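Retry 2 of 3 after timeout on previous attempt. Resubmitting C-alpha cells to design endpoint.
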C-alpha cells in the first residue's frame, strides 16, 4: 500500500506556468518565421517578373531580326515567339501587373494599382 502512495505522489505533470512559457516561446518563433515566408513569396514574384521581362526581351529581338521592326504589342509575339501571353487576365493577377513594349523595343513591366509603382 505504501508503494502505491509513493507512486501516486511521484506523478508529475506540467504546471500552468510551464505551459504558458512554452506557448509564449512558440508565439515568438511564429512571429519571426511568418514574415520570412511572406518576404519569400514577394521575392519569388519579383524573380518571376524579371525572368519574364528577359524572356520577352529575347522574343522582341528575334521578332526584330525576322521583321526589321519591333512588335507593337506583346500579342504580336504570341504563337511564334512566346507560348503564352503574359498579359492574360490570369497572368496579370499572378504577376501583379502588365508587360508592355515601347517603340524602341524595350520590354517594361507596370504594376497594377494594388501593387503601385513601376519596375523594369
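Retry 2 succeeded. Sequence:
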Amino acid at each position: 500500500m505504501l508503494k502505491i502512495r509513493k507512486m501516486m505522489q511521484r506523478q508529475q505533470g506540467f504546471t500552468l506556468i510551464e505551459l504558458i512559457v512554452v506557448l509564449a516561446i512558440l508565439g515568438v518563433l511564429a512571429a519571426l518565421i511568418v514574415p520570412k515566408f511572406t518576404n519569400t513569396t514577394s521575392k519569388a514574384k519579383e524573380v518571376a517578373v524579371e525572368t519574364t521581362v528577359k524572356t520577352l526581351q529575347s522574343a522582341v529581338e528575334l521578332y526584330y531580326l525576322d521583321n526589321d521592326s519591333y512588335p507593337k504589342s506583346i500579342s504580336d509575339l504570341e504563337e511564334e515567339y512566346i507560348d503564352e501571353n503574359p498579359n492574360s487576365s490570369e497572368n496579370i493577377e499572378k504577376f501583379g501587373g502588365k508587360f508592355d513594349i515601347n517603340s524602341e523595343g524595350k520590354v517594361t513591366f507596370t504594376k497594377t494599382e494594388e501593387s503601385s509603382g513601376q519596375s523594369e
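Attempt log closed. Strands lie at 97-101, 107-111, 118-119.
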